[in-house]
Design goal:
By secondary structure, the chain is of the alpha+beta class. It contains 8 helices and 4 strands; from the N terminus they run H-E-H-H-H-E-E-H-H-E-H-H. The protein has one domain. This is Secreted protein.
């Protein structure tokens, strides 16, 4: 009986994991300074950034890559980040460390209850991280590196 349950759980796990799950060599985190990024004020966040965004580098992308710089292929559907993933990483943390430039305003950005135009898509469903782990890693990485002082001063 126990062997049957374990075999069933294993089979369910194997079918739930995409074929290319986690095949990349590295994850690459890129960052941006919104003050320099917002030259046209065409994104709502450019005219009303968070205080953190005014003087600190924030995440702009976190992508899986092969050593030859290509991105792993994946046939899994791309979906919005789930409310559970947003709640786990923290909406305010995401607003500060991983802003979504096309959100209508800061209070609604990364809203787990009002995601329309406020939450981006999770573009790497085969990257070896769930959307919850992905967002938590981005927040952890950005919150643990310090923006160089010459950037903060300018």
């Amino acid at each position: 009986m126990v062997k049957h349950v374990i075999a069933s759980l294993f089979a369910a796990f194997v079918t739930a994991v995409p074929d290319n799950w986690g095949v990349q060599d590295v994850w690459v985190l890129t960052s941006t300074l919104y003050a320099g990024h917002c030259t046209c004020l065409c994104q709502p966040l450019c005219s009303h950034p968070t205080d953190f965004m005014k003087t600190n580098l924030v995440a702009s992308a976190f992508v899986p890559r092969f050593n030859n710089f290509s991105v792993p292929r994946c046939n899994e559907p791309i979906k919005q980040f789930s409310p559970a993933a947003i709640n786990a990483a923290g909406q305010v943390n995401l607003q500060n460390y991983y802003p979504f430039g096309f959100s209508r305003n800061v209070p609604d950005m990364w809203s787990p209850t009002n995601p329309q135009n406020n939450v981006p898509n999770f573009g790497y469903p085969c990257g070896g991280l769930t959307d919850t782990d992905y967002l938590s890693n981005v927040v952890s990485l950005v919150s643990n590196y310090d923006t160089p002082q010459f950037i903060k001063d300018n």
